Amino acid sequence: MALIVQKFGGTSVGSPERILKVAERALRTKRDGHQVVLVVSAMGHTTDELLELMEKIAVRPNPRELDMLLSTGEQVSIALVASAISAIGGKGISLTGAQAGIRTEPLHTKAKIADIQTDRLRQLLADDHIPVVAGFQGITYNGEICTLGRGGSDTTAVALAAALKADMCEIYTDVSGVYTADPRVVPEARLLPEISYDEMLELASLGAQVLHPRSVEYAKQYNLFIRVRSTFDEGLGTVVKGVNELENQTPVRGVTADLNQAKVALKEVPDRPGVAARLFGALSDRGINVDMITQSVRGEQTNDIGFTVTKEELERAVQVTEEVGREVGAKGVVSDEDVAKVSIVGSGMVNHAGIAAKMFQALADGQINIQMISTSEIKVSCVISRSQAQQAVRLVHNAFHLGAPLPAVEAT
Ligand code: ADP
Ligand code: ASP
Ligand code: MG
């Protein structure tokens, strides 16, 4: 008997018919002799709709109230999924994050899980129940509901699997697994049978929505396998695990784009020591995460300093940059939301020369201008114009032949 955590995303529980299918799948696993814990997301586009509703009420909503509102989406689906399981002969029981023992740090809209008390879940499992837990939420020690950031139900599932020492965490979604690029953007993208934690973490952090980045961090930390697979077919999907045997054959594992980026530039900054330290110190003091940074020489005495942040942080980043700009005597601040970050990821990249150059050439061939570049051992990222993001992903995917079948592995 294995203990399996199964997570179903928004599309998978998007209608009563789909909810019944989810219930059937869970009950089938239970009847195969396993213990099952379900984690579910809000139905369909519920979370987006709740956000739009709040936008009509408040321009800058109180984060506490936003969490109160958003957490209701998952509460609808747990009650329906648990009832569906019971309706077909199982013992379904719904649990909010708090009822499932999920404690979070006190940070509204992007909390991290602090710990999980599993007593109640274990008791329910021992009593043959299928607990259905609300994804994306938990409760602080002061009793406040906090959510984990968009896409956070994946993290609920993996964290629960780790806390329960589950044998497997299955993430059921609306595509057949992790592909070399978003299959909705690149139809010839190839399904990856396996991917390493490090590569998956980069892909997820760089915009591949299929897994929430923190869920991959947890899985790596607890050495827990994740299987990403489709709710709608019986395929085996992709296993995310420690080592990837195919690493050295294909230096680039996947391509992704992050559209949630914005660029800020401080223009004509006096060229003297301490300016960058002052600017990035001030941004970090306000909790603003800076991603890429460039400094370009403008003339004899001045520089431009550019950097990227997420769209949500743009307004605050501009404010801080304007303050620092006045203080250091810069000419002005400009910002641009019309950007995207396109990245290639692969842990075999370090051993291969010319990977970055090939990516730049692919973009050049498509007349796509690169505004910023950053590299690490396992990724190369370029900031480009947002309207060219999808074209860029297709061109780069094609340049690295990622849609081609894998070369045959030679017997040793
Ligand atoms: P869920 O609601 O099940 O959590 P998400 O919408 O959060 O589903 O994530 C699944 C989506 O991720 C897919 O529909 C797909 O468009 C997108 N995606 C982006 N990059 C990739 C990738 N490399 N492989 C698979 N899916 C990807
Ligand atoms: N419902 C939340 C969202 O849409 C969490 C999730 O689906 O993982 O972001
Ligand atoms: Mg998701």
What does this structure look like?
- By secondary structure, the protein is an alpha/beta fold.
- It is built from 11 helices and 18 strands.
- The chain has 2 domains: 3-174, Acetylglutamate kinase-like (Carbamate kinase, 3-Layer(aba) Sandwich); 255-399, 2-Layer Sandwich (VC0802-like), CATH 3.30.2130.
- It has helices at residues 16-31, 46-57, 63-87, 119-126, 153-163, 197-205, 213-222, 275-285, 314-328, 355-365, 389-399, and strands spanning 3-8, 35-40, 92-95, 102-104, 113-116, 130-134, 137-139, 145-147, 168-173, 194-196, 226-230, 238-241, 254-270, 293-297, 302-310, 332-345, 372-376, 379-385.
- Strands 3-6-2-1-9-11-12-10 form an 8-stranded mixed β-sheet, with helices on both faces.
- Helix 10 packs across helix 11.
- It is globular and about 75 Å long.
- Bound molecules: adenosine-5'-diphosphate, aspartic acid (ASP) and magnesium ion.
